[in-house]
């Protein structure tokens, strides 16, 4: 008889066989068993008769809701951003390395759909997204580029995922530079080391960048940003401003 699932899991803990369960967010498969990738409560999504044949195990980063919450407590709102990237999630990331075939980025913030359309809108009402402005301001400062990137989720933007048209004419050095802040969408969980991100939409691409002179630039087209001090333009894969 299969053993009962734990209520809480720690990274590397075996949860159940793949014959009985599918691996969800916060888990991975190793030697025909589902293991926890992060610490947190274990959740089971029952199988759906028409779409799923097995229940899905998920390890959450948020605590389980209490069975009988206080009647005076206000209902909790949906978080504006999460810590664990998922497929189709919109992320903000800093470019840490640019190569001929790909760019490596460090994920700073994972947004949900509602937050993605407002994340860089300074007129929005107060919310969790108010923290994003300070996160980006700090990330865009070259003095803050340090070993902290090694503690964040790493991702790759491949040459073929930079834009939707003329993919064969993409030159990575003209699309991104080290230190650029990029808005992208997760298209694959990749391997144990890297997620895969795309910027192949008009609203995706570089949102913040410094010129070679060290000044913050502003977008002038979908492929160009300009230094307001020197007036020099530099090429980028620019995200459409909201």
Model description:
InterPro entries: Csl4 (IPR039771), EXOSC1_C (IPR019495), Exosome_cplx_N_dom (IPR025721), NA-bd_OB-fold (IPR012340). Residues 60-80 have a biased composition (Low complexity). It holds the Pfam family EXOSC1. It comes from Aspergillus calidoustus. The structure is a single chain. The chain is mainly β and 242 residues long. 7% of the residues lie in helices and 33% in strands. Among the domains are: 8-59, Beta Barrel (OB fold (Dihydrolipoamide Acetyltransferase, E2P)); 89-115 and 151-235, OB fold (Dihydrolipoamide Acetyltransferase, E2P), CATH 2.40.50. The protein is built from three helices and 17 strands. The strands form four sheets. A five-stranded mixed barrel has the order 9-10-11-13-12. Strands 1-6-7-3 form a four-stranded mixed beta sheet, with no helix packed on it.
List keywords for this structure.
five-stranded mixed β-barrel, exosome, Exosome_cplx_N_dom, 7% helix, 242 residues, single chain, RNA binding, NA-bd_OB-fold, mainly beta, OB fold (Dihydrolipoamide Acetyltransferase, E2P)
End-to-end separation in angstroms reads: 55 Å
Q: Tell the overall outline.
A: elongated
CATH 4th-level superfamily of the domain at 89-115 and 151-235: Nucleic acid-binding proteins
Which value, in Å, is the CA radius of gyration?
21 Å
- In CATH, the architecture of the domain at 89-115 and 151-235 is Beta Barrel
Assign a percent range to the helix content: under 10%
**How much strand?**
25-35%
Keywords: Cytoplasm, Exosome
Biased composition (Polar residues): 49-59
Domain Exosome complex component N-terminal: 8-45
GO biological process, one term: RNA processing
């Amino acid at each position: 008889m299969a053993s009962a699932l734990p209520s809480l899991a720690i990274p590397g803990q075996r949860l159940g066989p793949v014959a009985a369960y599918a691996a969800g967010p916060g888990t991975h498969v190793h030697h025909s068993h589902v293991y926890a990738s992060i610490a947190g409560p274990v959740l089971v999504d029952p199988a759906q008769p028409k779409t799923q044949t097995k229940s899905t195990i998920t390890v959450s980063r948020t605590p389980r809701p209490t069975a009988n919450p206080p009647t005076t407590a206000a209902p909790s709102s949906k978080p504006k951003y999460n810590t664990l990237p998922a497929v189709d999630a919109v992320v903000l990331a800093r470019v840490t390395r640019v190569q001929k075939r790909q760019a490596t980025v460090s994920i700073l913030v994972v947004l949900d759909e509602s937050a993605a359309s407002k994340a860089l809108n300074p007129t929005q009402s107060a919310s969790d997204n108010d923290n994003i402005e300070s996160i980006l301001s700090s990330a865009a400062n070259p003095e803050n580029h340090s070993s902290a990137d090694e503690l964040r989720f790493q991702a790759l933007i491949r040459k073929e995922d930079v834009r939707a048209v003329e993919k064969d004419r993409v030159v990575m050095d003209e699309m991104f530079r080290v230190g650029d802040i990029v808005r992208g969408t997760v298209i694959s969980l990749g391997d144990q080391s890297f997620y895969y991100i795309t910027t192949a939409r008009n609203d995706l691409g570089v949102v913040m960048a410094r010129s070679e002179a060290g000044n913050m630039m502003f977008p002038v087209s979908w492929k160009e940003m300009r230094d307001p001090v020197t007036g020099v333009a530099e090429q980028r894969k620019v995200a459409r401003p909201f």
